[in-house]
Write a structure and sequence with these properties.
By secondary structure, the chain is of the alpha+beta class. It is built from four helices and five strands.
Length: about 140
């Protein structure tokens, strides 16, 4: 059985670029899905830092709203930073609802830090949206 030669540097760079663009589109999907459920946050102007952790690696992303404008960057100007394991983020980005995000934060899978007033504002808006959704379901 022949041993496989390592990828040439150009192929490795292409794979890294492909995964970065995949991650970028996944982050955009997650933000759009979240904002669809909480439309009151669509006009929020904020820069957030996203830390995706994998075994032995951490990817740092800058997410600017409204937009979202997603770049692979440290996000030194971030007002809020969210950190979670990459596999958990992948699932939340594609299938997660507000309730799933809340559960991830409650369990400690996801962590948020930042300016206290901004974080309180986001939590209050999300809680009010959840309350509106519950009220609509009971009336129907």
């Amino acid at each position: 059985m022949p041993s496989q030669a390592p990828d040439p540097p150009a192929v490795s760079r292409l794979r890294a670029l492909a995964s970065a663009s995949d991650t970028r589109s996944l982050i955009e999907t997650a933000v759009r899905r979240f904002l669809e459920e909480v439309p009151a946050l669509t006009q929020l102007k904020i820069v957030a830092g996203l830390e995706l952790r994998t075994r032995g690696d951490v990817q740092l992303w800058r997410v600017e709203l409204p937009g979202p404008k997603v770049t692979k960057d440290i996000a030194a100007d971030a007002r809020v930073r969210v950190s979670l394991p990459r596999p958990h983020f992948n699932e939340l980005a594609t299938k997660g609802r507000i309730r799933d995000w809340r559960e991830a934060f409650a369990k400690g899978d996801a962590k948020a830090t930042g300016v206290e007033q901004v974080m309180k504002l986001i939590v209050n808006v999300v809680e009010r949206q959840e309350e509106r959704a519950r009220t609509r379901k009971t009336r129907v």
